[in-house]
Amino acid sequence: MNDISNVQLLVLLSRLLQNNALFGPIPANMGKLQKLQTLDLSNNKFSGGIPSSLGSLNNLNYLDLSYNYLSGSLPKLSSRIFKFIGNPLICGPNSQINCSDVSPEPLPFPSDALRGKLI
């Protein structure tokens, strides 16, 4: 199985799918995993844009989309740690985004929440 288009688990807390040769677009229905706290899709072959539906994952603390073939703009995400380096169509030499010095704008969190650096 090399795609994850039938993700239907709504109570999933962590999804670690790095280094699995998964391909195709990241399914928009990943945004339905409302309890998800960690999502690592790094080092695969995902292509296309980053689904804006991931922005609805309010419990997401860590998102790693590094080293895929993603393109387009970076959506606003509530993830405290968001990695996207190694996507040549986002971070490449002809891109308007320099991944070494640009991170998505963080959303405000309550003062008692954990804080982290956006990478």
UniProtKB/TrEMBL annotation:
PROSITE patterns recorded: LRR
First and last residue of the signal peptide: 1-21
GO cellular component labels: membrane
InterPro entries given in the database record: Leu-rich_rpt, Leu-rich_rpt_4, LRR_dom_sf, RLP23-like
Pfam family, one: LRR_4
Annotated localization: Membrane
Keywords: Glycoprotein, Leucine-rich repeat, Membrane, Repeat, Signal, Transmembrane, Transmembrane helix
Membrane topology term: Single-pass type I membrane protein
SUPFAM superfamilies: L domain-like
Name of the molecule in the record: Uncharacterized protein
